[in-house]
Specification:
heterodimer, A: MetI-like fold, 2 strands, 65% helix, B: six-stranded mixed sheet, globular
């Protein structure tokens, strides 16, 4: 017999003369070494739980389909009414009753610009904090620092937005002036002022907001580096930083990419903080310090209240574009993780 | 390329717990020295204090004097990483870097030392893999992941990685305990070849292995759990296994105490 009759389902277990199953022993029958095998219970807790899990899965599908139908049904009439090219036009007048013109170009580019800049600001700091938590700080200091990071994650985004708009803009203003004075020849810092709500301000606030998630996820990733790999590097004479570069970072790479992408996902979808700190213009510019900047989600928050029927449809269409951008980002991330799987997967 | 290790009065601690006490022994160059003894007797701790890997754990420290050809390894201005580059180590479980290819694993220590030239790395890689009796099995797939090899091959890869930097001493911490008998035999053969060039110290639970591969054997033991491990007897392997001078050694190797 290749498998234990206890482990296999009763139907497929070979029934030999000595092991003939009696009809039903019920839950009170002998569990081991008794008279024989209990027959399979078809309608017990087992099948109930199975139905529950299947139904839960189905609910998700239904909800997603319902949302998709709703979004598309609302967006299509607005897109039909659009007198401009939705993908390339850089302005937003969907509420003009006779001549509605709106396009996603500036908003989409602005969203990506602010999110990417936020990532560039946040990732190095987040990885630094994560390495400090896992490999450098004393255990007590590390747990205190970890607590502070969790606190930062618990701050509502409206608070970040107000803080950015009413307080943090001042240091950013000064920094913008400094950047322009010394690096004004770079187009990114071309604006001579006055400085207010800019991509730099929005991205800086956004960076602070995505810092906790990247930090906590990547420190979890760093913690999972096998001790034996770290010891292998140290025993070769690696310094701590060399050990981190040889063992910790490469091992954690897929996890790091995943945590950065989650941070990017949060940045792309962030709404209210950017609605308060970006200039809400419809011109895309690579100048990070001039007044301006906008994002899809922030635009929805700013415009939804006063929008007409077409206006709402237009905003929903913009939401679909945001969804597509996020999807593409996630797929790229999965691709990167997948490409390295051969090396990580065999590391068990 | 092989040096003499001299330990005098070595004690090692994990926080307040004293794991080994007052170990004195001289390990001869170009020979295999086996450390045997029951679990928890401190043989691995002593091994890890030789290349200063013991102190990697938080709260761990070592007292006493340890010299490599009269260089003080625990001297005040000694660079720990320099010590570890002189004294290579092979661990209980094969631990190639999972993200690196076979090639990159072997040359990882050289790259740490700043060797960048491809031709030098290539030569060293081949030499180390040949010394580790692995070249014939892997030379066609050097760019494949090191973690894709079998357990025994991985352990030989780790040995190749350790000797690629041409250390003075190679420490082995139960290098065969995770391997099948055939792979174990391959490693034991390799150890016998390597002792022509290196000073080798091996911790093993397998007394037959100690008898087969080592020239000298050190027996460690503890009085009871919680006590520090001590060196009970240290002598020629032949003598330890045929005519030990201490009763406890005899009890241990004949299996009466364990």
């Amino acid at each position: 017999m290749s498998q234990s009759p206890i482990a296999g389902p009763a139907e497929t277990a070979p029934v030999t003369a000595g092991l003939a199953a009696p009809t039903d022993l019920g839950p009170t029958g002998p569990l081991g070494g008794g008279g024989g095998l209990p027959s399979r219970r078809r309608f017990g807790r087992e099948s109930l739980f199975r139905w529950f899990t299947t139904a839960s899965g189905a609910v998700v599908l239904v909800v997603i389909v319902a949302i998709a139908i709703f979004l598309i049904a609302k967006a299509v009439p607005a897109l039909r009414a659009d007198k401009a090219n939705f993908l390339t036009y850089k302005d937003w007048f969907p509420d003009d009753p006779t001549n509605p013109k709106f396009g996603i170009a500036a908003l989409a580019l602005g969203t990506v610009e602010a999110s990417v800049l936020a990532l560039l600001l946040a990732v190095p700091v987040a990885l630094g904090i994560a390495l400090c938590l896992t490999h450098y700080a004393h255990r007590r200091v590390a747990s205190a620092l970890g607590f502070v990071i969790d606190l930062l994650a618990a701050v509502p985004s409206i608070v970040f937005g107000l803080w950015g708009r009413d307080y943090f803009y001042k240091p950013v203003q000064d920094f913008s002036a400094w950047l322009h004075r010394y690096f004004g020849w770079i187009p990114l810092f071309g604006s001579g002022g006055p400085y207010g709500k800019s991509v730099l301000l929005g991205s800086a606030v956004l960076a602070i907001m995505i810092l906790p998630i990247i930090t906590s996820l990547s420190s979890e990733v760093f913690r999972q580096t096998p001790k034996m790999n770290e010891e292998a590097a140290l025993a070769l004479g690696a310094t701590k930083w060399e050990m981190i570069r040889m063992a910790v970072l490469p091992y954690g790479r897929p996890g790091l990419i995943a945590s950065v992408m989650l941070g990017l996902g949060r940045a792309l979808g962030e709404t209210i903080a950017l609605a308060l700190t970006l200039g809400a213009t419809y011109t895309f510019s690579i100048d990070l310090i001039e007044n301006g900047g906008n994002s899809i989600a922030a635009n929805i928050a700013n415009k939804f209240g006063e929008a007409s029927e077409t206006g709402r449809g237009a905003l929903i269409a913009s939401g679909l574009v945001l969804f597509a951008i996020t999807l593409v980002v996630n797929m790229i991330a999965r691709l990167i993780v997948y490409r390295r799987r051969e090396f990580i997967g065999s590391a068990a | 390329m092989a040096k003499r290790i001299e330990a005098s009065g070595i004690s090692a601690y994990y926080g307040a717990f004293k794991a080994i006490e007052d170990i004195n022994m001289v390990i001869e160059p170009k020979s295999v020295t086996a450390l045997i003894g029951p679990s928890g007797c401190g043989k691995s701790t002593f091994l890890r204090s030789i290349n200063r890997m013991h102190e990697v754990l938080p709260g761990a420290r070592v007292e006493g004097k340890l010299t490599l050809d009269s260089q003080d390894l625990y001297g005040r201005d000694v660079d720990v990483t320099a010590v570890r580059r002189l004294i290579g180590m092979v661990f209980q479980r094969p631990n190639p870097f999972p993200t690196m290819s076979i090639y990159d694993n072997v040359v990882s220590g050289l790259r740490l030392n700043g060797v960048r030239r491809k031709s030098m790395l290539d030569t060293a890689c081949e030499k180390a893999l040949r010394s580790a009796n692995l070249w014939n099995e892997v030379h066609t797939r050097l760019s494949r992941p090191g973690a894709g090899l079998s357990g025994g091959q991985q352990q030989r890869l780790c040995i190749a990685r350790a000797i690629a930097v041409e250390p003075q001493v190679v420490l082995m911490d139960e290098p065969c305990s995770a391997l099948d008998p055939i792979s174990t035999l391959a490693i034991e053969d390799l150890i016998s070849e390597l002792k022509n060039q290196y000073t080798i110290v091996i911790v093993t639970h397998n007394m037959q292995q100690a008898a087969r591969v080592s020239d000298r054997t050190a027996f460690f033991s503890i009085d009871k759990t919680g006590d520090p491990g001590r060196l009970i007897e240290y002598d020629e392997t032949n003598k330890i296994f045929t005519n030990p001078s201490v009763k406890r050694t005899e009890d241990y190797i004949t299996g009466r105490f364990g």
